[in-house]
Amino acid sequence: MADDDGRDDRFGIGDALMPLDDALADLTGRVNAAVGVERVPLRRAAGRVLAADVASPIDVPRHDNSAVDGYAVRHADLPPEGEARLRIAGRAAAGHPFAGTVGPGEAVRIFTGAPMPAGPDTVLMQEDCREEDGAVIFAGRIKAGANRRFAGEDVAAGRRVLAAGRRLRPQEVALAAAVGVTELEVYRPLRVAVFSTGDEVRDPGQDLPEGGIYDSNRYAIMALAEGLGGAVTDLGILPDRLDAVRDALGAAAADHDLILTSGGVSLGEEDHVKAAVQAQGALHFWRLAIKPGRPVALGQVGDVPFVGLPGNPVATMVTFALVARPLMLGLMGASAEAPPRYRVPAAFSFRKKPGRREFQRGRLVHRDGRLAVEVFAAQGSGILSSMTESDGLIDLPEDLEQVTPGQPLDFLPFREVFG
Ligand code: AMP
Ligand code: MG
């Protein structure tokens, strides 16, 4: 049986190994939003994907206003040397503009966020001033226009502030609110069916027979898919029987937009998932030149996209991040965005087999006051604690053969590759 730990490699049986980037290019080329749109109130919009551009009907900020508490003055009234003494003509607080005009030699007591009164162009900070007999006295030096925010300096009226395809984080929701929008057009949640497979796999809480194993993959996949905004249906554990797998996948395709499974995609005779997909749809690829996670089945059941993730728990999560996540985002209507990667020097040495890309679990450390990445000791694709005890994936390219300490490597934080 071909596992993804590199033992008993049987290259060349049937399909060739496909480089990850080729697979991803192929995948993103085909995928479009699979779901309809709806309008949601701003309060419910976080985590959703924007389906239409948002333009601002107003300038933000709406008016020139003060950035500090102090005194609004005409810069021309400040002498190049010595003290300025300006008569206080009024008061402007946030929500309470000063209605009059401010003449030469005059100032307005002003507070943060208050509109600039007509006349002044600069705000003196109150810490730099004192008041005496209805006048403000300032002895410092200040640039013209200081401490003043300009109308439209954040967003000019008419500008597109959010583009369709944007995943709405708290800051996008905040910006939509800042331009006065009350509802957003978003894609409906992607309906994701999740199965595990394997006669040895049991749900936590069930008795564990001899040779049994608790299902961790389904919980990982459900949490990952929900974290991306999917509406997940838990469809339990399938036995290692072709007819059962085929029927269950067929039924799930009726009312889901994506089917995710784990296990049963290797070369063993108990691995029926590929055959079950082929029986009622098509298999696009299933062998990637990556470790962990070589067997990843990507296809469709009827018209519904299908990803069969490998059974080993680390491989399941890594291939979810590498393959299922971009597919899922595409189907959700989100614009393609590769997760950011960071160049970090290695704090380890390692000999690598060329010809496939490896994603090792690593931890960020400080060495001599600098950030570096250390590799987690146990890299087996079943060692789930390598995920909880690490910070992310170290991406070792196909042709790399040797890592030496200090060598810069690409590091992908879990937060980014799963988020
Ligand atoms: P398979 O690809 O089905 O041969 O599974 C590969 C390895 O992953 C085997 O050791 C399985 O027992 C294990 N495995 C499969 N499914 C799960 C699961 N849902 N949770 C935890 N381990 C699993
Ligand atoms: Mg299995």
Structure characterization notes:
The structure is a single chain. With 419 residues, the chain is of the alpha+beta class. 19% of the residues lie in helices and 31% in strands. It is built from 8 helices and 28 strands. The protein has helices at residues 20-30, 170-178, 217-227, 242-254, 273-279, 313-331, 385-388, 414-418, and strands at residues 37-41, 54-55, 65-66, 70-73, 84-92, 106-110, 122-125, 129-132, 135-138, 148-149, 160-162, 183-187, 191-197, 201-202, 213-214, 231-238, 258-262, 281-287, 290-291, 295-301, 304-309, 342-345, 350-351, 357-367, 370-375, 392-396, 402-403, 408-413. The strands form 8 sheets. It has a 6-stranded mixed sheet with strand order 7-4-6-5-9-8, with no helix packed on it. A 6-stranded mixed sheet has the order 16-13-17-21-20-18, sandwiched between helices. Strands 19, 22, 24, 25, 26 and 28 form a 6-stranded mixed sheet that branches. α1 packs parallel to α6 (313-331) and α3 (217-227) runs parallel beside α6. Residues 1-14 have low confidence and may be disordered. The structure holds adenosine monophosphate and magnesium ion. Magnesium ion binds next to loops.
Compile the SSE list and pairings.
Layout: H1 20-30, E1 37-41, E2 54-55, E3 65-66, E4 70-73, E5 84-92, E6 106-110, E7 122-125, E8 129-132, E9 135-138, E10 148-149, E11 160-162, H2 170-178, E12 183-187, E13 191-197, E14 201-202, E15 213-214, H3 217-227, E16 231-238, H4 242-254, E17 258-262, H5 273-279, E18 281-287, E19 290-291, E20 295-301, E21 304-309, H6 313-331, E22 342-345, E23 350-351, E24 357-367, E25 370-375, H7 385-388, E26 392-396, E27 402-403, E28 408-413, H8 414-418
Parallel strand pairs: 5-6, 13-16, 13-17, 14-15, 17-21, 19-24
Antiparallel strand pairs: 1-12, 2-11, 3-10, 4-6, 4-7, 5-9, 8-9, 18-20, 20-21, 22-28, 23-27, 24-25, 24-26, 26-28
Helix pairs in contact: 1-6, 3-6, 4-5
